[in-house]
Specification:
Rossmann fold, 2 domains, two-stranded antiparallel ribbon, 14 strands, 23% helix, 21% strand, globular, NLR-like, Nucleoside phosphorylase domain-containing protein
Length: 373
Amino acid sequence: MRTRLKSPDLYTIGWIAALPIERAAATALLDERHDVPEGFRQHRSDANSYTWGRIGEHNIVIASLAAGVYGTTSTANTTADLIHSLPHIRIGLLVGIGGGIARPDVGQDIRLGDIVVSQPDGTTGGVVQYELGKAKLNGTWERKGSLDKPPLVLLHALGSLQAEHEIAPSKVPDLLQAMWEANPHMSSPKTDYTYQGVKYDRLFESHRDHIGGSTCDKCDSAWEVKRDRRDFTNPVIHYGVIASGNKLIKDAATRDNLSEDTGHQCLCVEMEAAGLMDRFPCLVIRGICDYADSHKNDRWQRYAAAAAAAFAVETLSLPGSLLQKGLHDSCRHDQPSGERVLWVYAFRCRSEEGPVYCRSTSYDSSMIIVALV
């Protein structure tokens, strides 16, 4: 029989997954799965389906996007519904797969199955929306605006974890092994969440397009970028800027231009983070499943989703109750010392363009206001 907590207010972390395979990995890595908490009343506008559970000292609620409906708008809608029904959620995690921007010639040696974590670089909060800008007369792209950084409590946790990894290796491999042992079906041929093998990790030169079929068997090995062979298969964790937008990128030239277009050395590209960073600041964790080029296929998706979820679990399992104390001391957004901040999320009713958000106490009768203090 599963545990059932006394109140939904005891859940403080919202975990957003886009795909069913990402949600499956998150659910399989829970320390404990819960029944729906007592007194939970799902908002009438909330169409989400939730999974409840615990990781370490933290109670987690997991939500995913509607099947077949992806991108930044769908992510924003899912997150808005979660906040409607669960206003006590303090911090968020966006965990799933992404396309790697590998540039081994400049030391950006990202490989399939590796993990990329959003981290501010001094000029951006860790996620850039590559579609947010304007085209200039000379054919270049000028980025406009910026997205919020993750909550400080999560950035402090990242710093602590990075220090731990200087002393001892990441626990991600151990967490994955435990997941496979507890859920044998996840390592079966049909639903294979295990490492896919070096021979299926092929990075091609940018000007070499894929030659037909679902595999790269017909693609000449002479086209591959020469990389030193790793003497291990465990995922490497990379910290830096993630590019986000509504386009599914399957073109090497477009991928390679992202860093120039955004003005940042992007490590990977994905389709959800830009939809929520300003509404629900969170940590973005991506397992690399392809290289965002024409050679893209689905082979690595499940393993990459599991690797990203395992890193999220390792972050939440930090010793010393670091995150627990941070959650107790702070609201969802970092507040200036001595100042009580009222954050207002406004959702325009019956909009065909999705929710409209603002940070303002002014509104008209066509808006529903949810205040979080």
